[in-house]
Amino acid sequence: MAFEPRLVVTGHEPDGTSVFLSDTQLDPVTVGAAPGLAFYLLWGTQEEIPTVGSTPQQPTTLPFFAGPGGTRFLLARYEPESSTPEPVGDPAELDAEAAHKLPGLLEVDEPDHPGMHTTDTLDYAICLTGELYLELDNGKEVLLTPGTCVVQQGTRHAWHNRGEEAAVMCFVGIGAKREPRAQ
Predict the structure, then answer these.
(1) What is the per-residue DSSP string for 139-165?
(2) CATH number of the domain within which 85 lies
(3) Sorted alphabetically, which Gene3D superfamilies does this protein's record hold (predicted)?
(4) pLDDT for 34-72, tens place per residue?
(5) How distant, in Å, are the alpha carbons of 28, 137, 142, 170 from that of 147?
(6) In the chain, how many domains are there?
(7) What band does 1 get if pLDDT is binned at 50, 70 and 90?
């Protein structure tokens, strides 16, 4: 069965009656700098307490990572590393494309450690399909299978699909403030 994410959004009529505001298929966002990776940007909120009720809220899906108090809700599809090509093209042009389509995404990556990154977010994640390894900065890994839930607390990490099929993760990221580390 094909993976075709769909987003249903509810709201209210002026009299307070609940309604469906939209029901849409989502197209993936891809960038040449990260072949084999596709994002479905579902929803997000600004860095304030959202309001609900009579006025429908509009999503804030970019920048990619929310600032403190903001949220992001997305799906990420990871193709198997064994079939993922290296980026092709001028690195400056690839970076510019990523900065335009997914601002903030590449800024957290570590050039000397491909895939390793740290974000100022508290992330809730669940593996929906496939298998994915979560690696931490000490080299330890855990295999995620469908139904595995992760609470990521701003740690340095990387995702690896060493399987034979695509893996899909669902993420809710909450923008956070980084506490200085004790020396």
Answers:
(1) S-EEEE-TT-EEEEES--EEEE--SSS
(2) 2.60.120.10
(3) Jelly Rolls
(4) 999 999 999 999 988 887 876 778 899 999 999 999 999
(5) 22, 24, 14, 11
(6) 1
(7) low
